[in-house]
Amino acid sequence: MEYHLINIYQAFTYIITNPLNMGVLILASFIGLLAGATPGITSVAITAILLPFTIWLPPETAIIALVAAYASAVFGGSVSAVLFRIPGSTENIMTALDGYELTKAGKSGLALMLTRFYSFLGGLIGGIIVLFFTPILADVAVMFGPPEMFALVVMAISFLATFEGGVKAIVSALLGFFLATIGSDPVTGVYRFTFGVTILGGGFDLVAVLLGIFAISEVLRLLESELKFEVVKERYKFKELMFPSKELFLKLAPLVFLIAVPIGWLVGFLPGIGATTAAVVAYLMARRFSKNPEKWGTGIPEGVAVAEAANNAAAMGTLVPTLALGIPGGAATAIVLGALMIHGVIPGAWIFTYRAQLGYTVLVGTVLSNVMFYLLAPVVVYIFLRLGEFLRRNIPFLAVMVIFFCVFGAYVIRNSVVDIVATLVIGVIAYVLNRYKFPTAPMAIGFVLGPLAEKYFRRSLDIAFGNPLVFISSPIGQFIYIATVLSIITPTLYARFKARKNVKS
Amino acid sequence: MYGEMIIFSLLIIFSSYFLYEALRLPKLPWVVIGPEVWPSILLIGIIISCISAIIYRYIKKNYYRPPKLGRSGLSRVLTTIVFVVVYALVFEYVGFFISTLVLIPTYLKFLRVKTLTSLLVGFIFAMLALLLFPVFLLIPLPRGYGVFYDLTTYILGLFGR
User: Fold this and answer.
1) Rounded to whole angstroms, how far apart are CA atoms A324 and A318?
2) What pTM did the predictor assign?
3) Set of chain A residues whose Cβ sits within 8 Å of the Cβ of B20
4) φ, ψ of residue A315 in degrees (nearest 5)
5) DSSP H helical segments within A441-474, as ranges?
6) A412 vs B104: CB contact, 8 Å cut-off?
7) Mean pLDDT over all residues of chain A?
8) Which residues, in sequence order, are CB contacts of A176 under 8 Å at separation 6+?
């Protein structure tokens, strides 16, 4: 422990006393914030864009720049998710649900304060756990094989049942799962449902699908009605935009500290899962254990706080397998891994012993990047808040802006018009389904979880030569399945028990 | 009354067709679970859910009616869809700059925005696309063909790209 603390202290002083490190940290955080808040530029995209610029930097500084840009972009993405229902980064998919509803209710300032505060909190706690436990937890991460991963995905899918809409929610989720099967089969490479369109071999991109489900469908809905809205100018005291009130903080604390951050972080640190899935799983779990799950998605602070705390904690968690095992936790951390290799650093547990300065500087840098975006965020938030207010008063401009970013955001994924068309088609389908009260959030969640479910389901059976007992053969898998069953039946039994007690009394 | 039923019916037809396509996928003897199994499970799930929803609604006479879409609202929705389709079609042939410069004002004009404002907004978005993607972020965008290519290349040249 002493060795740990000494290294952390040395890394901390190395960063804050070195003007280059601090300058890069501030600049990368600001770029990440702006990019994340700009619809169409995802956290992965900005990390990839910054990679060539970091080659001439020392390895520690280069990794700090990438991690700071990534962490800031994950927060920045929530700004456009809240104001325009466009998740700026895929990690903000769940933030768009309640955040945008709060904006519609004239509470965008509250929503943005929550995203900022809980992103910071989630990222900071996640970063501190990474700082102290990375070398230890790396061993735990490798204990999760395909059957255990599948159990985890099953658990997340079971939480979809909490969505309102009954059979409509089930159909919506199944559609999302099905959309994810289009393209190359993950196990055999056989092309499925591509109809000769080569680029569809890679399947629909998550960004294109999210833009369609959330942004295009919302623009079409807005254009249905009159083009002029009465928008109440929001007025907030400075303190209200900085921190939640004591009552609100205490109200949200159990969900944030007991579910969102730990679950987001734990799922994030599993190799190959990524922060987006981790945020989805944490959100669904928090919703399941909330006292009023039916209100989630209608614009409640819990939804925003949980989603943001979870995705930033998960973003930090993805660094564990990346640094300690050399297995990227997600797409952005794969770029970080690439940067390490460009600088001649081979990741592994030894990074914290033989190259302790590098390892610990990166870890301390991740924690500091959270502090940095928290300090820089008010500037970006203020600009986008005013822009959002102006656009909501002028729906044609809002429509043009959303369509512009959907077209360019979809195109730059693979430089293909097919992605623009896919975004539009999925958007129109989501719009029609929305009109008939099909919830579309399960479709987006299904699309995120679908590929993982199929991949781990099939890999598990392949490993066990088709024996289905493989799913319950390991203690971790058994534990997850038991927890899933308990989480399904406990709230129902509790509700029945309470109802019976009320009848008796 | 019929809208919901039409959606469920369309989903059944759509899923049945894709199920047929899934079952035609090559059967590979060396894998335990073939590429057709997972999509088939999902599609059968959609078909069963939709059939049960239709039967339930038919028996209970419980249909959801969405708020009626006015004529102007419908025309705005359809125009937006056409606008995105045209944008996607001309994007690579005309180039990102010219297509944005021309199509956005046209679309705004349809939404009854003043001509001068429409032109100004079109110019702002064309410049935003130019500065944000190829200039600052170094993301290549299509420049179009022929004269459009020359024009876009000239404009990009003014910004050193």
Assistant:
1) 11
2) 0.82
3) none
4) -60, -35
5) 441-463
6) no
7) 84
8) A442, A443, A444, A445, A446, A447, A448, A450
